[in-house]
Amino acid sequence: MAASVTDVFDSPALPLLLALEARGIHVELTADGRLIVEPASRLTAGEQAAVRAHARGLALLVRICDRAVQERRQAFAEQLAHTRPPSPPACLLRPQVPYVKGTCFSCGVVLHTLVFGRCWRCSLACRLACGLSIPPDLVTAMDAARVVA
Amino acid sequence: MTAAALADRLHATRAGSGWMARCPAHDDRHASLSIGAGHDGRVLLHCHARCTPDAICAAAGVELRDLFPDTGQPPARTIVATYDYHDEHGVLLFQVVRFDPKDFRPRRPDGTWSLRGVRRVLFALPALQGQTVVYIVEGEKDVRALQAIGLVATTNVGGAGKWRTEYVDQLRAAGVQRVVVLPDNDDPGRLHGDTIARSCHGAGLGVTVIALPDLLPKGDVSDWLAAGHTRGDLLALVHAAPRFVPADAASSSPAESLVAQPVLVRLADVQPEPLTWIWPGRLAAGKLALLVGDPGLGKSWISLDVAARLSAGLAWPDGGAAPAGPVLLLSAEDGLADTIRPRLDALGADVAQIHHLAVLRTGERDRAVQLTDVAALERAIRETRARLMIVDPISAYLGSTDSHRDAEVRGLIAPLAALAGRTGAAVLGIMHLAKDRQQPAIYRAVGSIVFAAAARLVLAVAPDPDRKDRRIVASVKSNLSTPPAALAYSLAAGRLLWEAEPVTEADVDTLLAGPAFPQHDRRDAEDWLSDLLADGPMRSQLVQAAAREAGLAWRTVERAKHRLGIAATRVGGVAAGGQWWWRLPPAKTDTASANTDTPPNMAVLASTTAISADKSEATLKTDTPQELAALDRLEVTLWPRP
Question: Which of B600, B320, B318 is nearest to B485 (CA)?
Fold first, then answer.
């Protein structure tokens, strides 16, 4: 069911995350790809099943909440506001960063693979700023070991 | 004969800057002979009926040679200046006459345009008597320009390429101790300046060569001063400039060295410059750095990794982009084709920016590079515009220098450090460690302590005693900044993999000493750390502070962390930003906790979407230690660990 949703903000993961956090349940995504929900004892059986079913959406929402993603989103949104259509903004957090392999060409952080591309934070923030849909499954394309151009 | 005279003879009429006349060499009805004056005084003839100059001259009753100016006379140009050359006693020996258009001719006092048999002396020689510092320039006009700002200056007759050794004798006889050479900004000028510098240096004079900044091509010091620069600007350059060392002097024997002259630098004349970091905290432009460690730990890998990141402008492991630039590599232990190039490719290097200095060639003969070949190294750095020179290892480039004798090492390492300063390139030397594990790391760099003393930055590589595949590189000396945090790395699958989390407060001396920790300390640390984190996650800085209070070595705490399986997670920030949190694994935690500093997801989502603020506040209410829940967690694995 989650796979058919084209935007994570339309997915059941959003109300689920909000409900969990409203009850003080912590949701975290680790760098090695584990979604942690605790304390699990507060979860009902239905909620535990929902967490498993919408884990990718939850993870993506947690990443969207990353402070650095939000900083980038704000920066890119300002670039968007100051760019006349039809030309899209470049969405570069630090324009002086060189376009080289192994470095995010937007912010300059080290990528884990020697390819050209953006880090997941810049990629996600760019989508957010431009109002593009963010499929829940996108989180698996944005793990720490991969690069999203 | 002048053009005007010939025109008069042929009854020519003015036509522009020349004349037109009927050509006497053929039956000319329409004045087809053009007569003009060349810039050197020659008479120029051109018949539009293609009569030859010989025929025209014959018909006009003049000799062909009459068309050329008299070689025994000065050209028909305007004299704009005369410069008198006197001997030490003020006796006029000859003059140099400057013409417009620009040309120079020497003449004797009697007007003869030849100096055959005349003693050559420096210009303004009487004014040099008793002076200790003299500026040498190319041209009398430049001498006048320097005299106008109160400096003592001279030049030689004939300009570039006409320097004579007897001029040095005149300088020494005048009491001059130091010369400042200001070459013109062109190749002949630089060559001339180098000739003067070598000549004076060889005679024991202190020499400084100044390449004036911002000079246009072919410009000279007169142009430089005319552009608005001042005496103070010039003096600042002179005081900041290094002493001239001829290309082959660095490798000459001590017996050939010359009498040392004190060169004083007044600090008021030194312009403060900011330090330029290449890798913040670890490599600085114009400074010597060392990377020391036992063999087999990956020092060469690190040096190549640094070269790769610099060549391609990649980011450093701890964040921030490397300034892209060429690298000069001196590597004696690894093969270029089978080791270095594949490694650089794997590291993402722009190999077009990395140059290997293989040998030095003299004529047909090649020889090994040594660190005493300072001039050759400097030339290599300047030709490649290298921002970094890597010497791997230093011991392979010592030549006959005894690495255990401080005096010999100092004689080698000081010029190397000066070379870095002159060129602005960072120099990274790789060194092995001595086996004495009781010594502090900085004393274990093989050979003389002078190596480490001369280096402004020293990094040491050590194995992690808890993990065979893990290495730690930490600062053991940093004269330029607070020591940077240690970094961990491993070598796997033909790649160098850095860890993102810095190894805080790594005691490199302890690391280098190898595993020697009492077991009871470790168990105490494990118990202490378990208790500390029992109530929930804690920022690593707070753990450090608590460890200090408890009297526990940080390294011991880090070992305990590893043995307990404590996870470290960074929250927020990019590169060096953010905070690291330590959290016990589930089995080790007695009570649950909600992470009090986890980013408030709900609040962020409220700003990203249209969620009400009330719900956001409800989330924030959980951020208190009193509301920590019983620990149990649900984990869903989304992707395998990279």
Answer: B318
